[in-house]
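ESCALATION

Customer reports they have been waiting on this structure for their group meeting. Please prioritize. Original submission:
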Amino acid sequence: MGILSRASYVIRSKLNALIGRAENPTETLDYSYEQLRDQLQNVKRGIADLTTQKKRLEIQKRRLEENVDRHNEQAREAIQQDREDLARRALEKKRQKMTQIEELETQITNLQTQQEDLVDKKDELQQDIERFKTRKETMKARYQAAEASKRVSEAVTGAGDEMEDVGRAIERAEERTEAMEARSQALDELRETGALESALSEEDDIDRELAQMEDSGEIETELETLKAEVGSGSATADDETTEAELEAELAEGGGGTAPQSSEAVEEELAELEDEERQ
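Update from on-call: job pushed to the front of the queue and completed.
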């Protein structure tokens, strides 16, 4: 087998496999049934044609038989009139007509035999068609039941082509959704870090750096203010403590007890610490 022959064989094999998978048995059975019915109609038309031809020959035969009878009468009349020549001519025509009648009878017999043979084949074919019809309907019912069972099983197990397509559609939707979410998060991150400028923003890198420096300067100023406030608060507390100690000593010397302000100082320090935490 040459290369071209092998290639042709492979191609035919693949085409047959594709046709086999795409073929619907119910449609094939219906088509075969219609083909058989067409053959039956052809046989019936053949029988009708043979019968028509046979009838024509029979009509022609009857006309020849009538001519034979007429030639007999002509020969009889010619003899009565002493015209042997005319009687001889009439008998010759009679003989020709009889020869033609014999040929027609042979043809009619052959046609009758063919007609009977076609009738027998027609009856046999019709019986085959009826049996095929019964088997066809049975096979169609079995195929439809098997197809319905297969679809139900595929739907339950998810092994069918349609369920596979549904699963792939879900996977594609999930992939596209995840890709869009990841892109949205990446754009947000780039916008927040300043790596990606907004299409509507008129600021450039210098404006953003100046704004950051201004924010840092304000924070430093506020921090220095807090430090100054905390330092002044501590000095005031030390002064108040010294005065309290002097008043205590005077009170001991004078025999009385003076009020102490250390609790007030501690409260103020606590408030400052809370403000620093905030």
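Sent to customer with the following note: The longest helix spans residues 84-157.
Escalation resolved.
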